[in-house]
Protein: Putative hydrocarbon binding protein
Amino acid sequence: MKGVVFTNLAEMVEENHGLATWQNILDKAQPPSGGVYVATAQYADEELVSLVVAASELLGVPAPELIRLFGHHLWQFFGKNYPQFISDHDNLFDFLVSVDSVIHIEVNKLYPNASTPDFKYSKDNPNELVMFYRSPRKLCHLSVGLIEAAAEHFKTDMTLEHPVCMHEGSDHCELRVIIGNG
Structure:
């Protein structure tokens, strides 16, 4: 996993809970890197898992919720550092369907060897988009947070349903984004 994920996790914890809390998380997780992260470097996925587990325990926040909140934080990072990923789109659905075909391609240019999740889409009516998420990392809750933050950015009232999940034994997650009355 790219170091930019780790540097942003550290930033989120430090901004919300202080540097001492981040240090306590590192002490508890004992990451192989020693907790020193370079945005362009590659780190083992397991290192992120150990940090999330430690943060969850120390902060008293369930891991899925912590990862969802991290999605909100990453949205701010992407918006600040890569505004073109967002500004090219007029609405939530246009943005979401660009994630796999445009944004992930650009992410891989910026961060070679990045392993992005795979999304497929289904849109049977104008008020609903179904996103099918697949990733060996199973960070679907990160996608949920990013989608929620995107909806806020595009000023879109939406409901997000997650009826199928890899954490419950499925080979994919289904994220249903419903705007308005659906």
